[in-house]
Amino acid sequence: YRGQHAKEPQLSTFNQTEVKAMLGSYTKVLFVRDPFHRLIATFLQGMGINPSFSSFVQDVLDSGTHNASAAWKPLVSLCRPCLVRYDYVVMFGFLRQELGHLLRQAGLPVPGLLPELTDTQVQWTYSWLSEQMFSELSAQQKQQLSRFYRRDLAAFPFSSSFLSD
Q: Is residue 162 in some structural domain?
């Protein structure tokens, strides 16, 4: 079916009145993740072709925000939180707790629909990985990453991020 392969129009191609009308009847959920954790996950998944995390980060920084891959592009530029009024923002690392609340709000049976999530283990693993990977970066790279993700860090409560000042 030809319609299945057609590219969907971007939200930014509509004016604010059209966007408001389209999104008004939907429950809008945004899933967010610490930008440094997103970088680590992208590197570990092999999207970074570099042998070291430091050289991968340098390629990310050199690409700039306009040429960045969606895997590491700042969330604010991807999800437009100033344009779209999200009903829920779900933080990675608190999925079990927040998804349970979201399902209850939707009137759905939580025990039957919620997968087994191990948030505590995920948080510990990313805490350890973040510490290891962050230590590989130069002071200049750390500062540049904080600048690169400054809008994400301001928009979302990533208080324990290594990129927070």
A: no
Indicate left, alpha or beta for 153 from its phi (over 0: left) and psi (-120 to 50: alpha).
alpha
How many domains, the chain?
1
Q: Angle at CA 79, nearest 5°, toward 46 and 66?
A: 60
CA dist., res. 164 & res. 147, Å (int) = 10
pLDDT digits (tens, 9 = 90+) for 91-106: 876 666 777 778 788 7
What span, in angstroms and rounded, lies between the C-alpha atoms of 123 and 131? 12
Please tell me the pTM assigned to this model. 0.75
Q: Is 30 helix (H, G, I), strand (E, B) or coil?
A: strand
Q: Is residue 44 part of a domain?
A: yes
- Residue 76: domain span: 11-155
All residues at 6 or more sequence positions from 82 whose CB lies less than 8 Å from its CB, including other chains: 76
